[in-house]
Fold this sequence. Notes:
Helix content is 13%, strand content 48%. The chain has helices spanning 2-11, 22-34, 119-123, 128-131, and strands at residues 38-49, 52-63, 67-74, 82-86, 89-94, 99-103, 132-142, 145-154, 163-169, 175-181, 187-199, 202-212, 219-229.
Amino acid sequence: MKIITLICIILGLKFMPEGTSDGDAILLKVDENVVSDYKITVSVMHVKSRRGERSIKSKSWIQGRIRSFTEYLEPARERGTKMLKLEDQLWTYTPATDRTIRISGHMLRQSVMGSDLSYEDLMEDPRLHNLYIALISGEDEIDGRRCYILELTARKSEIAYYRREIWVDMERYVIMKENRYAKSGRLLKTTDVSDIKNIEGRWVATRVLFKDLLKTGDGTEFTLESISFEENIPEYIFSKASLRK
């Protein structure tokens, strides 16, 4: 046990219980970087489709993995559109129609605001360790940063992406690059991180290009303008009544 603990210290990993692989330990540290009890974010989604380019700004209030509320701020035609996630349920509200719609079934595969992100992506548990078994398949270098390459295999068959391949910064435990695959082995989506910042003691990806390979266009770039962790979020935010306010 002393030898195992020493190895974990040398690798910069927390001691893990018997039966947990090094890959799973790395994935847990990735989760620690991105998941918090409460956080508030402001971000811009720049969609580069075959029809042209457009930017959409939003603000989100997030509680762990179970609840989130998003309000779109810009452009004017999208202002006031809202989304509410309560565990495994998702609703959207559009002021132009003054209607609240529950997103479920095949609708979850639809694009969010014409982006390369689907509603199914939004509903996914952000704690990857809950969804996948991780194995270290190699090492690589991205933008001068040494990375572990992890092969992730789904713990359950109903997960949207049966397999993932991620490149994790060895020092900061941030995902630098990712490939998402169908069970057939077909590559479905990719992500590439181009900017990372230390915010409140966490390493956070602040600029990410997300590409759906089943769509035309140059992908969707997400820019995180601000994020604050462990904020006190009023309970009423996570209610269906907030959609129509």
